[in-house]
Amino acid sequence: MRTILAGVAALALTTSPATAREAEERPTVEEQISGGGRPVGANWARSPVIAQHGMAATAHPLATQIALDILKAGGNAVDAAIAANAALGLMEPTGNGIGGDLYAIIYDPKTGKLHGINGSGRSPKGQTLGQLLEKLDGADALPPVGPLPVTIPGTVDAWFAMHEKFGKLSMADNLAPTVRYAREGHPIAPVIGMYLDRALRAYSARQEVHPFEFDNARKVWFADGAAPEAGELFKNPDLATTLETIGREGRDAFYDGALTEVMVGYLQEQGSAFTREDFASHTSDWVEPACAEYKDGYELCELPPNGQGFAALQMVNILKNVDLSQWERGSPEALHYMVEAKRLAYADVARFYADTDFAPFPEELLSEEYGRQRFALIDPARATPEFEPGEPKLEGEGDTTYLTVVDGDGLMVSLIQSNYRGMGGGLVAPGTGFMFQDRGELFSLDPAHPNAYEPGKRPFHTIIPAFVKKDGKPYMTLGLMGGGMQPQGHVQILVNIVDYGMNLQEAGDAARFNHDGGRQPTEPLTGSSADPLGTLHVEPGIPAETIAALRAMGHKVKVVDNGIMFGGYQAIARDPETGVLTGATEMRKDGQASGY
């Protein structure tokens, strides 16, 4: 009896209200108890999702369900991807929206062809670099907020281009679920609630440095003076009206109609050089994906610049020269080679990647021979202090969402969409319900740089969808959102699957690294990088012995435990023989993979 009473007393003590000091000293959940066990697979990853008739993986469970509803209503994977993307613009405004840009890779089973679409927007045609520099008043870079970093929002045009080529349902039907959620409300998801709070604090701080109009944005997302919290119902009736108009009137409702007048008038009031003609003449481009074979029949496929996707292909061509599987996945050797390959590829990104209408891409960068040359520069024992870009023979030269949908016929969509930094540049045209992107911040102001600002030009872009072939057949859609994390994230997922035998979910849940720094596409061409070595950020799952060894090799290593900078992953693999679909989603987000 005495033992039982002691136990009851102890329970009473642990459940009584704690003082502030006791609460501060209390261990976190992770310190009190670790994860449980699993009957199959790694203990730190749940099972991948397996289905047959259709599957979607997005950063929000409601968006995933909308995609499946569209498939069940007779739509295909393109219809469902558009519907899910529209929903994410409402439900995950911290990562994307119709004020931003879109890229996609689509596999068409009817033709056996991969299609790529570049839905990124351009700078004002009537504004020169000299005129922009005058507005910057001595600043050496474009600001992250206000009118100057705004480029034409390309997402809506890309939706209609994809729909015209592949869609089955009407655009009104595809947008209807989001229109309904925007009017009736949806509960804020936990991670998105955290990002909304961060966004409000960030914009408030930036207003002190770069004053800009933010009242319209406050009315949409922060009307009560604070960010909506997890579980709180959120409505955006302005966005509902905008999407309903687009669904009813088509692409021109956004680019050459009454809505255009509202957007252009507002932007000009803020100091932008955009005209209605800039919007009306905007087009998306269908582009050719390129692929690089890694090993065991696996090929990684990416879209060409102005995006950074080819950096992942350069990493693949470097890493195929060493067998990473001879070491453990968390070993210093494996991480060292992967990080150095990333640094080599990104030195070329900073030098050569730009809008190919203005600066042709040197195809030699994707050759296996060039990959061998770059691999030879890696010191297996030490981090190289600085990597220079290569010298090909020139002839003439955060915050994103990724989603994927595959339908029962084998139509596969790999789609990424973003407003760039945070929720965008802070500007919201009256009554529209969406924020303009700040992608133009990634222009260089060095007139000699391929990525230099010019009228009617697309800036260097970070968002990239990916696709994987196996033995020459379509195998997997893949994406991992988050700025410069994306190419190195794509390669880490591929290495996890190919070299270390992980399933789709394990490959995404495994601890990652994010190397940041080194040469940047916004820096001047001449001179050394401001941060040539950069910092290797790793998650807590990387062993302490490995971190110590990497530091001894000369890497500047920092452990980051909140998952924010390591991206947001989704993937769907399709068995080419049975058509069975396997999906995975990101534990670092609110997402869901689901099928039927």
UniProtKB/TrEMBL annotation:
Gene3D superfamilies: 1.10.246.130, 3.60.20.40. This is Glutathione hydrolase proenzyme. Cleaved by autocatalysis into a large and a small subunit. GO terms for biological process: glutathione biosynthetic process; glutathione catabolic process. InterPro entries: GGT-like_enzyme (IPR052896), GGT_lsub (IPR043138), GGT_peptidase (IPR000101), GGT_ssub_C (IPR043137), Ntn_hydrolases_N (IPR029055). SUPFAM superfamilies: N-terminal nucleophile aminohydrolases (Ntn hydrolases). Pathway: Sulfur metabolism; glutathione metabolism. Residues 1-20 form the signal peptide. Residues 18-38, 513-535 are annotated as: Disordered. GO terms for molecular function: glutathione hydrolase activity; leukotriene C4 gamma-glutamyl transferase activity. The active site is at residue 400. It catalyses: an S-substituted glutathione + H2O = an S-substituted L-cysteinylglycine + L-glutamate; an N-terminal (5-L-glutamyl)-[peptide] + an alpha-amino acid = 5-L-glutamyl amino acid + an N-terminal L-alpha-aminoacyl-[peptide]; glutathione + H2O = L-cysteinylglycine + L-glutamate. Keywords: Acyltransferase, Glutathione biosynthesis, Hydrolase, Signal, Transferase, Zymogen.
